């Protein structure tokens, strides 16, 4: 790909990572951003989120996590609201925030690529690198499976030596898709599961329960970020964003339906010590996920 063919988020970006590795490499500082979203208004949402993030930077955090479809709300109006991936203003905004704040920024966006729409989780690094995961399990009760294409690849990213499995909302209900699938000779595939969501208030208890269950069964941290407020259809979202440790115990737990921003730490030494002390992984069943 020539320089002229590069998508807009590469413009002016540095070519080497500027994530600040000077902080403790045994910890991954993670910022959960629980926000009220403006319906189908990407410019307003990006502006409001930028204001909420304030001066947050790599001095304070390694990872900023935004909700599912943070630019639009959970819209099924894919034809009008999905942005072409290569020209996406929202993805460009994420890349700019990552570059300027010197940390990773992640959240999902409705995009169009190769003639198909996707609910795509974007992982934007400060060096301009963009990784993505397309939501696998589409919420048929809202007709999402009729408006967006299904992802078919699990994606594990790495940050400061921590491996994170990416997921979006409804994926959380499907433990086989999210189960540890270590390579031969390894014990674990990932250290944390990340899930961004627009999870409605009437089902808040399953959200909380499933976040903790995924942590326990996979001996990993779980990062769950949900939105608050109401969408254009009057559906309420309760938030309940959580950072859960490998024992299923919440490290950040905000059972309130108000916007907030909190930073917590994933501790590599504590995770390794517990995995050694309680090696349930040794008795795990081996399996393969079929398409």
TrEMBL record:
Domain CN hydrolase positions: 28-268
Keyword Transferase: yes
Catalytic reaction(s) noted: a monoamide of a dicarboxylate + H2O = a dicarboxylate + NH4(+)
Domain of life where this protein originates: Bacteria
Gene3D superfamilies: Carbon-nitrogen hydrolase (3.60.110.10)
UniProt KW keywords: Acyltransferase, Hydrolase, Lipoprotein, Transferase
Family matches, as CDD domains: Xc-1258_like (cd07575)
Enzyme class: hydrolase
InterPro entries: C-N_Hydrolase, C-N_Hydrolase_sf, Omega-amidase_YafV, UPF0012_CS
GO molecular function, one term: 2-oxoglutaramate amidase activity
EC number: 3.5.1.3
Xref: PANTHER family: OMEGA-AMIDASE YAFV
Membership in a protein family: Belongs to the carbon-nitrogen hydrolase superfamily. NIT1/NIT2 family.
Protein name as annotated: Omega-amidase YafV
Organism: Chromohalobacter israelensis (strain ATCC BAA-138 / DSM 3043 / CIP 106854 / NCIMB 13768 / 1H11) (Chromohalobacter salexigens)
Lineage, top ranks: Bacteria, Pseudomonadati, Pseudomonadota, Gammaproteobacteria, Oceanospirillales
């Amino acid at each position: 790909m020539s320089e002229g063919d590069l998508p807009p988020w590469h413009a002016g970006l540095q070519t080497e990572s500027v994530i600040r590795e000077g902080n403790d490499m045994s910890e991954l500082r993670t910022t959960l951003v629980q926000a009220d979203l403006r319906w189908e208004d990407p410019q307003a949402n990006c502006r409001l989120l930028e204001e909420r993030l304030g001066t947050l930077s790599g001095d304070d955090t390694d990872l900023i996590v935004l909700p599912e479809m943070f630019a639009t709300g959970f819209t099924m109006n894919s034809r009008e609201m999905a942005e072409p991936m290569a020209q996406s203003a929202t993805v460009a905004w994420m890349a700019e925030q990552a570059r300027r704040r010197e940390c990773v920024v992640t959240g999902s966006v409705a995009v169009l690529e190769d003639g198909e729409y996707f609910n795509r989780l974007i992982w934007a690094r400060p060096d301009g690198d963009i990784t993505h995961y397309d939501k696998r399990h589409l919420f048929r009760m809202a007709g999402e499976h009729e408006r967006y294409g299904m992802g078919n690849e699990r994606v594990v990213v790495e940050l400061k030596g921590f491996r994170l499995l990416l997921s979006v909302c409804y994926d959380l209900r499907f433990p086989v898709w999210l189960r540890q699938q270590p390579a031969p000779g390894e014990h674990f595939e990932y250290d944390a599961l990340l899930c961004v969501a627009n999870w409605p208030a009437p089902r808040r208890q399953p959200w909380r329960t499933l976040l903790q269950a995924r942590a326990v069964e996979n001996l990993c941290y779980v990062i769950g970020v949900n939105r608050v407020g109401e969408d254009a259809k009057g559906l309420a979202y309760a938030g309940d964003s959580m950072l859960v440790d490998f024992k299923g115990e919440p490290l950040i737990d905000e059972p309130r339906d108000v916007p907030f921003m909190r930073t917590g730490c994933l501790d590599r030494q504590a995770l390794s010590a517990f995995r050694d002390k309680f090696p349930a992984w040794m008795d795990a069943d081996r399996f393969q996920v079929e398409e």
